[in-house]
Design the sequence.
């Protein structure tokens, strides 16, 4: 299940009818007033107090949010509420929510205007610096989605890149930006920069996906090889995909070796797929997906060896493919180019690519994503959350302490503190950097970055985060050295935020 699907399911389970008639503010975005940030410039931190709590208190009720024109009217009314007129951050959040609802109604210019108005709220420099790490980039991403809906791909990509750069050590907005960029096969410099950065923070198949879409098969194969080396036990789908990419890259021997490796794993998994429980169904799905990728790999291998008839045989009798479109279309196109009309009859590689692009675009701009924009886009998160993580990292704390993983071949750090997803990721990075430095190591490479997602007032959040990493002192590091993060860079970028503030001088 994808991250977004998990979040949608959680939202549905959490929904409950409101028991009291809520205010326009609650009907707008589901939240009441929030504390106004104060500041102590001398120490360079934001503090929160009771000053600036304008308007009456009201319980948060996300289930009371309205939609469409009713929501737009509620947000407009909420802008006259003391809780927004007396708090610029809260006002910006309401403007952003109204922009999301304008987007919902297909009024893209109005959505962009609200996003820009939210971003232009007057704030003091210290508050602005923190605002530009959450609400600010969320409004930029909203504008990117609106431009995408207007078929302005270039502007959507530019804005998405801008939003992702607001937190260069975070993953959520980077992934959203790359989802937009993946709609076109080209991989320009900005996209490559994001892919490289994300591969260091969150190793997964995304980098290979983009390279596959561009037809850069040797680079994609190298990426897949490294991803397989990261996994403690690579799954059958991952290995089968690697074989297909290797074959398309012309590495016939490598593809055959990978197929030999995955074949027994698929057979063993298939033996578990005969039942009716969830585990059996999951196993059956994995076997089916892996088998398709194996067939594609075998077809391309046969083609590489000049055996066109064998390649055609591996594709025969399958009118529909569920494998990744970039791989499926490439192999079928290659076989059809050599084998003529009799190869995979009725299957059009161009249509496979076009259908996949349409589905991906609908996933970014269609009505099904609106509640995700409402709940996942970053909102204001109190800066003392980062400071609390700093307390968790102290040697005297019982949380966020390094522990051996993978039988001592790696190190694991975890956190169970509820926080915005990117805040949790940054905190784990800082903890890993400090633990590495304590052992005299100047670099580390992430092997696993796992989060348990949830939704909260700051937007997409996590209630459990796990990070596994290796340093140059670990045998597994050599294969990941090109993905390493420097301890000094992480500390310079984030250390000041994830630290217990010094007591105020009297």
Sequence:
């Amino acid at each position: 299940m994808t991250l977004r699907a998990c979040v949608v399911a959680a939202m549905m389970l959490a929904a409950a009818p409101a028991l009291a008639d809520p205010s326009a503010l609650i009907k707008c975005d589901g939240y009441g007033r929030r504390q106004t940030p104060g500041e102590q410039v001398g120490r360079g931190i934001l503090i929160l107090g009771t000053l600036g709590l304008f308007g009456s208190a009201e319980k948060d009720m996300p289930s009371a949010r309205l939609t469409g024109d009713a929501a737009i009217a509620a947000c407009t009314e909420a802008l006259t509420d003391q809780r927004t007129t007396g708090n610029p951050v809260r006002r910006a959040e309401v403007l952003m929510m109204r922009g999301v609802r304008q987007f919902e109604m297909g009024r893209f210019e109005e959505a962009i205007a609200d996003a820009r108005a939210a971003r232009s709220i007057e704030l003091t420099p210290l508050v602005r610096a923190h605002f530009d790490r959450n609400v600010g980039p969320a409004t930029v991403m909203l504008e990117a989605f609106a431009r995408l809906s207007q078929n302005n791909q270039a502007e959507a990509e530019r804005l998405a890149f801008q939003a992702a750069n607001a937190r260069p050590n975070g993953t959520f907005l980077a992934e959203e930006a790359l989802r937009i960029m993946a709609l076109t096969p080209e991989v320009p410099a900005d996209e490559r920069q994001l892919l490289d950065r994300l591969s260091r923070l969150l190793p997964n198949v995304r980098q290979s996906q983009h390279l596959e879409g561009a037809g850069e098969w040797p680079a994609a194969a190298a990426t897949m090889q490294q991803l397989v080396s990261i996994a403690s036990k690579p799954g059958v789908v991952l290995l089968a995909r690697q074989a297909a990419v290797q074959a398309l890259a012309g590495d016939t021997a490598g593809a055959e070796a990978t197929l030999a490796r995955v074949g027994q794993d698929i057979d063993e998994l298939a033996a578990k797929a005969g039942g009716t429980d969830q585990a059996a169904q999951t196993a059956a799905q994995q076997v089916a997906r892996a088998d398709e990728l194996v067939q594609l790999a075998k077809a391309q291998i046969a083609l590489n060896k000049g055996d066109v008839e064998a390649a055609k045989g591996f594709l025969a009798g399958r009118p529909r493919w569920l494998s990744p479109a970039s791989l499926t279309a490439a192999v079928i196109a290659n076989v059809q180019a050599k084998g003529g009309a009799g190869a995979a009859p009725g299957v059009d590689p161009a249509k496979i690519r076009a259908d996949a692009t349409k589905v991906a675009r609908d996933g970014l701009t269609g009505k099904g994503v609106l509640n995700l924009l409402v709940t996942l886009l970053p909102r204001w998160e109190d800066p003392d959350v980062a400071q609390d993580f700093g307390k968790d990292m102290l040697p005297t704390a019982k949380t966020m302490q390094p522990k051996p993983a993978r039988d001592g071949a790696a190190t694991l750090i975890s956190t169970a503190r509820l926080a915005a997803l990117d805040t949790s990721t940054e905190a784990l990075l800082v903890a890993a950097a400090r633990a590495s430095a304590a052992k005299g190591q100047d670099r580390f490479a992430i092997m696993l970055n796992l989060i348990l997602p949830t939704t909260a007032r700051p937007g997409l959040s996590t209630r459990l985060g796990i990070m596994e990493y290796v340093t140059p002192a670990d045998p597994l590091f050599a294969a990941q050295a090109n993905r390493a993060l420097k301890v000094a860079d992480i500390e310079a970028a984030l250390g000041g935020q994830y630290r217990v503030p010094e007591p105020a001088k009297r």
